[in-house]
Amino acid sequence: MGVSSRCAVAVHALTLLARDGGGQLLTSAEIAESLDSNPVVVRRVLGRLRDASLVLSSEGSGGGWRLAHSPQAVTLRDAYCAVEEGPVLSLHAHPPSTSCVVGRNVQGVLEEEFTAAEWAMRERLGRTTIADVLSRVLAGDRQSTPQGP
Amino acid sequence: MGVSSRCAVAVHALTLLARDGGGQLLTSAEIAESLDSNPVVVRRVLGRLRDASLVLSSEGSGGGWRLAHSPQAVTLRDAYCAVEEGPVLSLHAHPPSTSCVVGRNVQGVLEEEFTAAEWAMRERLGRTTIADVLSRVLAGDRQSTPQGP
DNA sequence: ACTAACTGTAACTATGGTTGTTCCAGTTGG
DNA sequence: CCAACTGGAACAACCATAGTTACAGTTAGT
To answer: Which bases on strand D have an atom closer than 7 Å to a protein beta carbon?
Structure first.
């Protein structure tokens, strides 16, 4: 199946909020415009980031979303864990037969191995911060459209 | 979303075939019985393993499936790559807006990071062989139901 | 040659999660 | 009081998976 695109949306939104030194206050409509998506979809994802204390939301007129921490302090792992629940690698849809040695014990082994594999994936995601992403995003623009003095 | 359970089915089937030193010849019906599932589902997964040269199939009466290599030579990574195509971590459902710096460049950065994270996951899966799984499966049975002399 | 036992594959259903959308209640600032 | 937000429910469209049935093709044994 593959994991949902929520993580990509989350990193995208966090990167937007990280501009200007992290002091940006943006509405879900503004973020949705950059994503070419829907404000409700954005609020769904940002709601999870808020539950994980990665962003803060303020209601009412003039409200919106802003980072809860500095862009250097938030990693892709934080974003991933905030929006994606449950294991990536699935065990059997059905529990296997208990009248077979393999059926009785394979799920325990698989759970250990899959957990270790996912830990490795998250560990790698934890090495990159939103600040890293932002600087590379900006560098990409400088490469393709060099600016004069 | 999470990844399909095909990898769990594949490892289960490979472990069954690895018994008896790897010389087992099993039918899809026998494997399906251990999985408490359907022979067609099993053949779908084992078909991918065969395309990846992990198992061999023989048609006709007396036919079935057997390992193409020794259980020590096949890792969970091999099984995973054989049955699971495409990236685990998805980029945006839509391409983002090109009129925004982040929208223009974030997908490239995400692709690099996600690829690295998935590589880390597969690397970890590559450290465990089917022989490892089999021995742990058998050990699990010895623990819970100790046998006399 | 016939039959039984397999694989290989197409077609179909049911299910569940995600995405996108509309709608409305609640909150806030001017 | 109004305009601009968030919060959240409800719903449709879509897609992959898991499971099932059905059938064609292949092989071994008699």
So the answer is: 3-10, 16-22, 25-29
Total tally of structural domains belonging to chain A: 1
Residue B133 carries which side chain, given as an amino acid letter?
A: V
CB A52 within 8 A of CB A81: yes
Query: Does residue A63 lie within 7 Å of nucleic acid chain D, judged by its CB?
Result: yes
* Residues 84-143/B with CB < 7 A to strand D: none
Q: Which residue range is the domain that position A137 belongs to?
A: 6-87+129-144
Please, is B8 exposed, middle or buried when counting C-beta atoms within 10 Å of its C-beta (0-12, 13-18, 19+)? buried
pLDDT at A148 exceeding the cut of 50? no
Residue B7: which of A76, A89, A107 has the nearest Cβ? A89
Q: How confident is the model at residue A22 (pLDDT cuts 50, 70, 90)?
A: confident
Q: Give me the residue label for tokens 């501009």.
A: A19
Q: What is the pLDDT of residues B76-115, one digit of tens each?
A: 999 999 999 888 999 999 999 999 999 999 999 999 999 9
Question: The domain spanning residue B84 has which CATH number?
Answer: 1.10.10.10
In this complex, which of B108, B124, B125 lies closest to A140 when CB atoms are compared? B108
